[in-house]
Amino acid sequence: MSEPLMVLHYDVDGTDFTVAGEASGAVKKVLKQLGVSAEVIRKVAIAMYECEINMVIHAHGGFIDVEIRPESIRMIHKDVGPGIPDVEKAMQAGFSTASQQVRELGFGAGMGLPNMKKYTDEMKITTEVGKGTIVDMTVYIK
Amino acid sequence: MIEKRCHSVTLDRPSCKGCTTCIRYCPTQAIRVQQGKAKIIDERCIDCGECIRRCQYHAKKAITDGFEMLENFKYKIALPAPAFCGQFSKADDFDIMLTGLKMLGFDHVFEVARGAEVVTAKMKELIHTGLIEAPVISSACPAVVRLIAVKYPDLMSHVAPLTSPMEAAAEMARREAKEKTGLKDEEIGVFFITPCPAKVTAIKWPLALEKSNINGAISIKDAYMRLAHSIDKIEKVEHLSVAGRSGVRWANHGGEAEALGIERYIAVDGIANVMEVLEKLEDDMIKGIDFIETLACTGGCVGGSLAVENNFVANSRIRRISERLADNAAPVPKLDGMYWNRKIEYKPFSPLDEDFSEALKKAARMNEIYAGLPQLDCGSCGAPTCKDLAEDIVRGKANETDCIFKLRERVSILAREMAELESKLPPSME
Ligand SMILES: Nc1ncnc2c1ncn2[C@@H]1O[C@H](COP(=O)(O)OP(=O)(O)OP(=O)(O)O)[C@@H](O)[C@H]1O
Ligand code: SF4
Ligand code: SF4
Ligand SMILES: [Mg+2]
Fold first, then answer.
1. The domain B9-62 is classified under which CATH number: 3.30.1490.20, 3.30.565.10, 3.30.70.100, 3.30.70.20?
2. Tell me: the pLDDT tens digits for B193-241?
3. Of A35, A69, A141, the CB nearest to B351
4. Any domain includes A37
5. Pocket-testing residue among B137, B301, B305, B309, ligand 3, by greatest number of atoms within 8 A of Cβ
6. Which residues, at least 6 apart from A95, have a Cβ–Cβ distance to it below 8 Å?
7. Where do the H-state alpha helices sit in B310-385?
């Protein structure tokens, strides 16, 4: 893969619900300035937002690197949370371990990971229980 | 090349002090201060009127029409916006205000609130049929429609392609007038009494229509000035208030949504709030909602920048007086022009570069420049934020030394170099 022409870095605070979405919002702005098509922006924004929220709800925060190349946008989300014991199961639509408290906030439908899969062209999850999770997603520009 | 301006909002150059207040409040970052004067970047302006409200020197103006334009027509009709009747403290009855308006030189007064009722009926149909992707976004506020067209391309498919209440009212009023007088279309002048520059733009340079049915736009302010003196001298009050409560309340925020009689709606007013909701919708985070009312002005059209009365006061007055009206006035007529007849294209602000790789490089450079700026967003450079200055620099429209802090840095470096140079004067000159 070629060197990215631009790398954006964001820290995601795992203690504050209200800041989740700031990183995806900032990336959206950058992509609009770059003249990226509406469809690509939408895919990136939705996938990133879902992933960012997961980092806050399930993994006490972490950081995100966004690499922009002429042909693609890659988003790498890293956390040092509890990890995902069964990725295949977590990917199923409707699967969620969210607490009652989180569900009351409107999250926990178990649709985050399936949506990320749906809106991205490549998605890879590397995870280890007790260590953390890396969600690596790419959206193609053309 | 002189490009034709197509905005109602303009700068009155002599009044502008270059104070940089307005640049901070423009929601689309459309204003820069250069050489001591504000400058509106046309492709970015959505005519929301925010800058008109904020400028204490009244240097931002809306181009509207004057009463002298009435002379060009044999039969003149005033179309007061629903917000019009909220402006007067002395009158306690819509008929008094509408009669007063008529006396300013019109042959008839037709409330835009009637047009609002027609649009409401059509909107109900549209939501019900599911032809437009839910949630349906109202198209009543032209500033918001423009905002979506330049900033939220993905949401365009949610916007109801319906005509506005003022255009619907214009068609009804024209039809009535032609039947009554036998005059030709061009002999009838239809004038919108507007709280809002965006509506003026929508009349003069319509986005979604080939041509407007309205001949001129007179600001509520101008009408108010003339009316203020005469309103308590009216002798014979005519019965001109024909609109129902649901149409009249379109003046206030929430009025349009309430008229639909549905439960699952969002009503958002104030341009910053509107943008917040649109962002959320763009990220697919708004679920289970059928309709979104989006009004650029705080409080809705009563808060329009060309209105006179405080929007909270006007809101209360409209609510109270309209309480006596029937819910809906009359059966809804069939109109020819209920839908947009022009497609609105996504027209984003120019990207940093037409070529994507170049744009990327410029964006990277922009981030570097931004990192070197003080990030105080002080506005002294004439750009609203340090980020905007960084963008202007990579676009070749500004220099790093436009930043006073950068300039100071450069000056002190220069001063040091001068001092060094001085100490290195050749021995022959010592
Ligand atoms: N970063 C993460 N660290 C640990 N566990 C995670 C992480 N991301 C997802 N999971 C696990 O995978 C499950 C499914 O995630 P998904 O995003 O699909 O649903 P959700 O977050 O529970 O609900 P929704 O996203 O619909 O609000 C989560 O409930 C959680 O158990
Ligand atoms: S009218 Fe609105 S968009 Fe246009 S320059 Fe003024 S504040 Fe900006
Ligand atoms: S809210 Fe009403 S007055 Fe304000 S810009 Fe929109 S249409 Fe005009
Ligand atoms: Mg989730």
1. 3.30.70.20
2. 999 999 999 999 998 889 999 999 999 999 999 998 888 888 899 999 9
3. A35
4. yes
5. B301
6. A89, A110
7. 311-322, 356-372
